[in-house]
């Protein structure tokens, strides 16, 4: 998600473009593509058997008719695309995450982690996307979830006529309440960001859902042994992830701190000109409530809430439950008493739009330059066979997902 998968259709590059980029260039291009996100109605819990992740080398495996038909593409990421899917018998529409086995080779554990996390929390909280079903074919793995048609969080904010601090507090309270449930169930999401927060439908009071559990983990204790690679989206990652000292539930709380800051001004607290500068700022928790014209009307309670989450030491960071009990979020509770009238608060929307658009334009230019430089300096020059094999794998996976009729039975 340049930062995320938009409601608008996102198309894969044409075959001719892939050929001109070459293997190394294609992989660089893929890394800049948005991560997939899902979209939502209501549905029943999954009763499917565990996925087996068979290899593509399997010879003529037995197949059974598929219960779904796929439709238009909703979003595209590095290893997967998200398509609209309809259940043939019921006519119910869902989001279907189509994961290429070839592109996920060596990362199969990520799919298992995502399924394990979603199975544990599906239908347990109104603000968490539900896993409906999952199955596999020769070339792809398929995860069927709620279809969220209400759009991403920030898009919805920008569509509003006005937006006040109390609205931000309500949104953050909804997210935090869902994270309390996740953590109580032993799940760390590890990729919380506005692009992974989707509305179920377009109604004014639609549920806001946490989606994209591709980096989530089920944990049996309070700490995850550090992985061989970092995880998450750089601007929302906690210091301990960069330091590789091991991480757990507190990384989600750091992300909520970054999201809160973003929702109050339209830019992230550690936004810098380069990734290295951004990482250094995160490690040192180097942020300020500036420029002052954006923050002068934001309450001290809101700033204190952010300070309590953007704390370097994970053990000193607010837990999800403690955050929910913070006075700033308590003011947004359903049973809270009368709060300050909205006409006593500043409309934050004009400043947020202005800041967000300025940062987005700058980032687009910088990312374009970085991609060109990466392609120019890449040491590996792919040969014809490498290019054709990758192109063929992409074609096979795409053709199969477009004409989904047979799937491998559960064993």
TrEMBL record:
Transmembrane parts of this sequence: 12-33
Matches recorded under InterPro entries: Kinase-like_dom_sf, Prot_kinase_dom, Protein_kinase_ATP_BS, Ser/Thr_kinase_AS
Alphabetized Gene3D superfamilies for the sequence: Phosphorylase Kinase, domain 1, Transferase(Phosphotransferase) domain 1
UniProt-annotated binding residues for ATP: 97
SMART domains: S_TKc
Keyword Transferase: yes
Annotated keywords: ATP-binding, Kinase, Membrane, Nucleotide-binding, Serine/threonine-protein kinase, Transferase, Transmembrane, Transmembrane helix
Protein name, per record: Ca2+/calmodulin-dependent protein kinase
Family, as annotated: Belongs to the protein kinase superfamily.
One of the record's GO molecular function terms: ATP binding
Residue ranges of every copy of the Protein kinase domain listed in the record: 68-329
